[in-house]
């Protein structure tokens, strides 16, 4: 998998490996008994040890990269495209009023301590700067920065 080549460290490689195998549980009927152990590993290793909360049923495309994988929380209703890069202390989730979560298109890059909240779409090629909270849809190739972000 190209994710392992792109992953910047052992912790990132382990977290992605465990998630992908746990995610396979949802897709495979034949291997369910074998893959169940990775659902447990996703809970124990990724959540409790690494502080990375990505439910095994989350839809994440290939090429997913976590730089400095710690404190990452992704809601299971979120959809993440291909070649998305996420950094430490990032939250991708719903707004608490409904269950709708962000959709992140391909080739999006998120800085450290980014919050993506609610029923929003980040267009392909978008970048979100460190410490930014995004609550509105971004068009393709947008750059969002700052508190109460502004689009450049």
Automatic annotation (TrEMBL):
A single GO cellular-component term on record: cytoplasm
Membrane spanning stretches: none
PROSITE patterns: HEXAPEP_TRANSFERASES
A GO MF term: serine O-acetyltransferase activity
Record has Transferase as a keyword: yes
CDD domains for the chain: LbH_SAT
Pfam families in UniProt: Hexapep (PF00132)
GO biological process: cysteine biosynthetic process from serine
Family matches, as InterPro entries: Hexapep (IPR001451), Hexapep_transf_CS (IPR018357), LbH_SAT (IPR045304), Ser_O-AcTrfase (IPR005881), Trimer_LpxA-like_sf (IPR011004)
Keywords: Acyltransferase, Repeat, Transferase
PANTHER family according to UniProt: SERINE ACETYLTRANSFERASE (PTHR42811)
Family: Belongs to the transferase hexapeptide repeat family.
Designated name of the protein: Serine acetyltransferase
């Amino acid at each position: 998998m190209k994710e392992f080549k792109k992953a910047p460290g052992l912790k990132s490689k382990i977290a992605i490996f465990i998630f992908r195998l746990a995610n396979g549980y949802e897709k495979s009927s034949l291997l369910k008994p074998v893959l169940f152990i990775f659902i447990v590993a996703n809970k124990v290793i990724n959540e409790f040890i690494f502080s990375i909360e990505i439910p095994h049923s989350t839809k994440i495309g290939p090429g997913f990269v976590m730089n400095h994988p710690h404190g990452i929380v992704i809601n299971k209703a979120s959809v993440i495209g291909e070649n998305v890069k996420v950094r430490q202390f990032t939250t991708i989730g719903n707004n608490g009023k409904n269950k709708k979560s962000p959709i992140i298109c391909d080739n999006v890059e998120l800085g450290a301590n980014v919050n993506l909240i609610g029923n929003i779409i980040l267009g392909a090629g978008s970048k979100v700067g460190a410490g930014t909270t995004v609550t509105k849809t971004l068009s393709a190739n947008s750059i969002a920065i700052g508190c109460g972000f502004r689009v450049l």
